Amino acid sequence: MAPMEGITDVPFRRILRKHGCSVICTQMIHAEGLLRGTQRRMQEVSALDAQEQPVGLQLCGSDPEMVAEAARKAQDLGAAFIDINMGCPAKNIVSLGAGAALLKEPQKAGAIVRKVRQSVSVPVTAKIRAGWNEEYKTALGVGQILEDEGVSLISVHARTKAQKFKGRADWNLFSELKQKIMIPVVGNGDIFFHNDIARMIETTCVDGVMIARGALGNPWIFEGRQPLVKDIRDTILEHLDLHLSFYQVQRAALMTFRKHLVWYTKGLANAAEFRLKVFKEETYEVILEMIHHFFDQLILGSYPAIPYGS
Questions:
Q1: Choosing from 21, 25, 60, 88, which is the catalytic residue?
Q2: Does residue 88 have an active-site annotation?
Q3: Containing structural domain, residue 206
Q4: To bridge 56 with a disulfide, which of 81, 284, 288, 306 should be the other Cys (CB 3.0-4.6 Å)?
């Protein structure tokens, strides 16, 4: 599962693990925030559940010393590996010289990996993009530098920073990178159905596949199973229970769970009307009753309106 800010928290990761996701990582965490932050939010995003091991922790930053110090703390927290984000296109990250900005400074990217490798005993991995833009594609050069500095694995989102999440991912990049480096390459981009996984492996020879948006509301993509309506309902209830148990402020937790309700119910009959009503409610008992009522109106045991596993 790709690290996704505000999404890949402990409850979500536990659902994914249950459905066959073998490698899981936290969302991207600012190195300085991990070191200096004492607020509840930082404790939530960096939490590592003992039941979900092994789990990695993804860091972003532009200062090698600070990222290395944060990596040591992450290792102490129980991270099985440290992943360094070198692909986030968000303006607030790039403006600090972190994330995708490191694609324009390959030597700094290498220096960060070198310092982190010297500071921890767990494996160090990196997530990059195809490059800054179409005219400045640096994935191949950056990949070679990172390999030289000792990363154990590189995952690549085959879009440029300029593309963000639009357009098609260039899977040809994976094959090109595989010819340049010896360490494992994990492909990321445009995996929305289970058979996309096999297609990427067969056509590019990647060593692994990373799923991002394709797993939202669809944990079944990892196991290649088409869920019944009953499966969707039961998973929503299980995920909601985990979410409320993890986040202590119930009102806030109900609001942050709304995005998951959108993803889980996408394509189901009358889902838009259901969401419009449930999002107006703030009481857990009422929301729970509305979820049960919505699914009771559907034909339990039938297939959803969208091709989850095809």
A1: 88
A2: yes
A3: 10-221
A4: 81
